């Protein structure tokens, strides 16, 4: 491999440990690093004990972060696509001028709402999403989406209708922890996951329940593993809720005080045939009922649903059923149970918000369902998307039907990708703009789901960027300027106020300008980056947009911010919070609440049990005859499993994996024998969407009829000669748009009907 960076091969230049975070999953555990003498390489990594949530914990992946920072495929210059489909380097002025001209032409001819925005944040970089506002408002863009609209929108929608906001579980204190289509051993999803699962497993007073067709590493530790048939969770959960209803195990007085809709729920589940549910789910009725009773009897229960059910049949219904299971038993708003979120920004407000312009798909949380985006491009509808700006996302690789995505990208009149690498998506774009990495600018995560004390972590840059790449904030501000949307002299005026009169006067001046000219809100993030940004210590310029977010949060939740130790009147509180973030290299507690406060945050102070459309689905489950496979496609493929060394497409160099470099297809030995396949055999996997050649690995963990491929493989990376080489297979070459949830369009990647056959190696 070219330019392979090994963390271990260089010794640290000094004993200084710098604070930052791991960016390989949503948790962003606090990390301490030592740099090598070249100032460009991470030499040593350890957990940061001062991080409020991860408290020194790291998983196996964090020691490989240098593979993200140092890479042979780093983008160093803006690139423009040529007529031949190659890319040529161009300078920034040319790139910005041409992009602005194309976008303004599309805006003036067809309307700004034909310009679509995708991405804005991956697992640890959410600030581009804030700065993109500058470009979007400047061109009048309206529609957008990101990866949440292919996994979490069903859950957001259900949670919003039941609780008025997204919820999460207190797994660290739950007496009973349930993992539903979730393998936290590899995928985490809450802090210190492996340590926490081990603690629950060891404690005789606590119970670990795993619902997964596969005997995962988490299932190995479980007290109860319900190895549900793939894609049949709706029956299992409906049977469990029906057990609670039919045996009268629900918490009547508590429900009367805190919820409405119980009668409708009881009426529906009284009619559910539990034996039929058990049969269809592949779990015997006794285990199903006894597990439901454990949940009803427990002091506290926390449930984590994830992709195994969210990317599967009946996904939105399952998000509802699992909530009914614990809400009926009162496992909400008390320690060890569930809570609604209160953090900086409101990432997960699951409101339903109209329909997409071309195909009329339901929009949740402001996000167009990912599976319809190509349809919204490849159409002659007058409002079809004609331009796309994509940043911190790789949709050609990560969204259903890569083939159709390539087609959609090439059909656009203008496409711009902002990334650190020449990704599968960048290779279809008209312009590719190089961004600084997450270790070369200030960054922050908004996935902070802690309660009753919540935290925030602003990371300081640990490297100087190379010449070429720019922060997204700068890129978006330059586009806004080229579009003529930044009033002349405004930046200098505000900078002058800050320099001569200080932050309080600056704050008053900013608020006065915004009150005077509300359209300036559109460029506020970039304006802060240019004015407040340079005054911030520790090279935190890119964190400037958080200043506004801090003010919003302090105004919305002053009591909980004060309880966290920040002081000041209404206006000063936001500044105090911002300074707290800036001055805490390992993160800081930003709000402290009490469990009963949750009710105050909920509209009407109660939860709603009855969602009528979903109850109608429950009523038809017993008459539904599930049939996911066919003679042509007899297996169910879980397309995109999390493994020890996968991290979406954040690290592209295959050498970062210590094992399973090619990402094998796992299959039960009995299925393999029937198909004449042994360990390491080559095989062809075929679906309605396409076919790919894979290497097979036999695994007793897999149920018969169920096969799995890892997520995040099939990436091209330069080999030792600098030639692009693809390792493993990209799962979405095998998936397609229509295999998706009927309410919110989340794809059913975890149960793709498939066929497998042996092939000769090198075939
Ligand atoms: N190592 C690693 N960690 C990651 C990531 C990564 O790429 N690599 N990505 C991060 C991201 S973006 C996300 S969203 C999370 C996802 O985290 P998870 O949802 O935990 O990840 P998956 O492995 O995709 O799916 C979880 C489980 O669903 C099971 N499953 C498959 N079919 C079914 C079914 O029919 N029913 C049930 N009940 N289960 C089923 C699979 O066997 C698998 O064990 O992980 C995050 N963490
Ligand atoms: N078949 C199948 N498909 C799946 C899944 C599955 O289980 N099965 N999982 C899905 C899930 S849950 C998710 S979340 C998605 C993830 O898919 P995407 O949302 O596409 O996310 P990533 O692969 O993490 O891509 C992040 C991009 O950001 C770039 N990047 C990194 N740092 C920076 C930076 O500082 N600035 C900029 N501008 N760019 C940066 C990276 O190079 C990369 O191209 O994949 C989904 N796709
Ligand atoms: S759990 Fe692992 S991958 Fe996720 S942020 Fe922490 S160290 Fe990184
Ligand atoms: Mo995800």
Q: What is the strand and helix layout of this fold?
A:
Layout: E1 18-21, E2 30-35, E3 42-47, H1 66-69, E4 79-81, E5 87-89, H2 92-110, E6 115-119, H3 127-139, E7 144-145, H4 153-163, E8 167-169, E9 176-180, H5 184-187, H6 193-202, E10 207-211, H7 217-220, E11 224-226, H8 233-246, H9 252-258, E12 259-260, H10 262-270, H11 274-281, H12 285-297, E13 301-305, H13 307-310, H14 315-327, E14 338-340, E15 352-355, E16 362-364, H15 373-377, E17 387-391, H16 395-398, H17 402-411, E18 414-419, E19 431-434, E20 443-444, E21 453-456, E22 458-459, H18 472-482, H19 490-501, H20 503-516, H21 524-531, H22 546-556, H23 558-563, H24 570-582, E23 588-592, H25 597-601, E24 607-608, H26 612-620, E25 635-641, E26 665-667, H27 669-674, E27 682-687, E28 690-698, E29 706-710, E30 715-718, E31 724-727, E32 752-758
Helix pairs in contact: 2-18, 3-18, 4-14, 8-10, 8-11, 8-12, 8-14, 10-26, 18-21, 19-20, 22-24
Bound molecules: ligand MGD (2 copies), iron/sulfur cluster and molybdenum atom.
Structural summary, described in words:
58% of the residues are buried. The protein is an alpha/beta fold and 763 residues long. Strands 5-4-19-18-17-6-7 form a seven-stranded mixed beta sheet, with helices on one face. The protein has a six-stranded mixed β-barrel with strand order 25-29-26-28-27-32. Among the domains are: 18-69, ADC-like domains (N-terminal domain of TfIIb, Single Sheet), CATH 2.20.25.90; 79-150 and 357-434, Rossmann fold; 153-343 and 608-619, 3-Layer(aba) Sandwich (Dimethylsulfoxide Reductase, domain 2); 635-758, Beta Barrel (Barwin-like endoglucanases). 32% of the residues lie in helices and 18% in strands. Residues 1-8 have low confidence and may be disordered. One ligand MGD is lined by residues 25, 151, 180-183, 186-188, 211-214, 216, 228, 230-231, 233, 306-309, 312, 638, 640-642, 646-648, 711-712, 750-751.
């Amino acid at each position: 491999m070219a330019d392979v960076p090994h963390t271990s091969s260089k010794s640290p230049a000094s004993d200084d440990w710098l604070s930052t975070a791991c960016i390989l999953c949503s948790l962003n555990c606090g990390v301490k690093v030592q740099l090598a003498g070249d100032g460009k390489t991470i030499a040593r990594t350890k957990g940061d004990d001062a991080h409020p949530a991860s408290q020194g914990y790291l998983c196996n992946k964090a020691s490989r972060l240098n593979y993200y920072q140092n890479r042979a495929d780093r983008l160093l210059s803006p690139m423009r696509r040529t007529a031949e489909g190659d890319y040529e380097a161009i300078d920034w002025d040319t790139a910005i001028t041409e992009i602005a001209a194309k976008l303004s032409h599309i805006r003036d001819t067809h309307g700004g709402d034909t310009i679509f925005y995708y991405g804005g944040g991956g697992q640890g970089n959410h600030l581009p999403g804030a700065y993109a506002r500058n470009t979007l408002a400047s061109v009048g863009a309206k529609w957008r989406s990101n990866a949440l609209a292919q996994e979490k929108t069903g859950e957001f929608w259900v949670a919003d209708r039941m609780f008025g906001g997204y919820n999460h579980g207190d797994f660290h204190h739950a007496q009973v922890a349930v993992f539903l289509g979730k393998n936290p051993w590899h995928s985490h999803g809450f802090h210190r996951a492996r340590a926490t699962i081990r603690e629950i497993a060891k404690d005789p007073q606590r119970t670990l329940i795993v619902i997964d067709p596969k005997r995962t590493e988490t299932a190995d530790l479980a007290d109860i593993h319900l190895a549900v048939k793939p894609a049949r969770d709706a029956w299992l959960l409906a049977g469990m809720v029906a057990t609670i209803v039919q045996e009268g195990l629900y918490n009547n007085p508590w429900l009367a005080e805190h919820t409405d809709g119980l009668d409708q729920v009881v009426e529906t589940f009284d009619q559910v045939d539990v034996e039929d549910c058990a049969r269809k789910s592949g779990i015997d009725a006794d285990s199903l009922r006894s597990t439901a009773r454990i949940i009803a009897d427990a002091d506290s229960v926390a449930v984590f649903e994830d992709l195994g059910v969210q990317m599967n049949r009946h996904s939105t219904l399952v998000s509802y059923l699992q909530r009914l299971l614990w809400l009926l038993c009162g496992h909400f708003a008390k320690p060890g149970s569930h809570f609604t979120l209160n953090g900086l920004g409101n990432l997960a407000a699951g409101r339903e918000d109209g329909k997409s312009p071309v195909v009329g798909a339901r929009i949740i949380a402001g996000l167009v369902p990912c599976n319809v985006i190509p349809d919204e491009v490849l159409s002659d509808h007058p409002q079809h998307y004609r331009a796309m700006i994509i940043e911190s996302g790789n949709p050609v690789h990560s969204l259903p039907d890569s083939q159709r995505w390539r087609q959609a990208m090439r059909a656009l009149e203008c496409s711009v990708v902002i990334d650190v690498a020449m990704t599968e998506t960048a290779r279809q774009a008209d312009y590719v703009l190089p961004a600084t990495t997450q270790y070369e600018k200030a960054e922050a995560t908004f996935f902070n789901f802690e309660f009753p004390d919540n935290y925030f972590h602003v990371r300081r840059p640990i490297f100087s960027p190379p010449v070429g790449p720019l922060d997204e904030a700068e890129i978006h501000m330059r586009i806004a300027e080229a579009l003529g949307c930044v009033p002349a002299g405004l930046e200098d005026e505000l900078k002058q106020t800050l320099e001569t009169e200080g932050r309080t006067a600056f704050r008053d001046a900013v608020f006065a300008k915004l009150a005077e000219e509300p359209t300036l809100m559109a460029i506020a993030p970039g304006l802060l980056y240019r004015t407040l940004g340079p005054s911030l210590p520790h090279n935190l310029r890119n964190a400037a947009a958080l200043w506004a977010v801090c003010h919003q949060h302090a105004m919305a939740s002053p009591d909980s911010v004060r309880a966290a130790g920040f002081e000041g009147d209404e206006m000063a509180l936001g500044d105090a919070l911002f300074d707290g973030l800036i001055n805490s290299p390992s993160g800081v507690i930003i709000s402290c609440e009490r469990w009963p406060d949750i009710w105050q945050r909920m509209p009407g102070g109660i939860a709603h049990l009855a969602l009528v459309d979903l109850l109608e689905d429950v009523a038809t489950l017993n008459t539904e005859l599930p049939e996911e496979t066919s003679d042509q496609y007899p297996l169910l493929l879980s397309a995109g499993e999390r493994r020890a060394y996968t991290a979406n497409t954040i690290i592209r160099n295959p050498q970062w994996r210590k094992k399973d470099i090619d990402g094998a297809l796992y299959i039960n030995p009995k299925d393999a024998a029937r198909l004449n396949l042994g360990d390491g055999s080559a095989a062809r996997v075929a679906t309605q969407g396409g076919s790919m050649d894979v290497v097979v690995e036999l695994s007793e963990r897999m149920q018969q009829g169920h096969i799995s491929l890892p997520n995040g493989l099939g990436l091209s990376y330069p080999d030792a000669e600098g030639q692009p080489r693809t390792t493993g297979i990209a799962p979405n070459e095998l998936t397609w748009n229509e295999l998706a949830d009927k309410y919110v369009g989340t794809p059913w990647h975890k149960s793709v009907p498939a066929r497998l056959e042996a092939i000769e190696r090198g075939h």
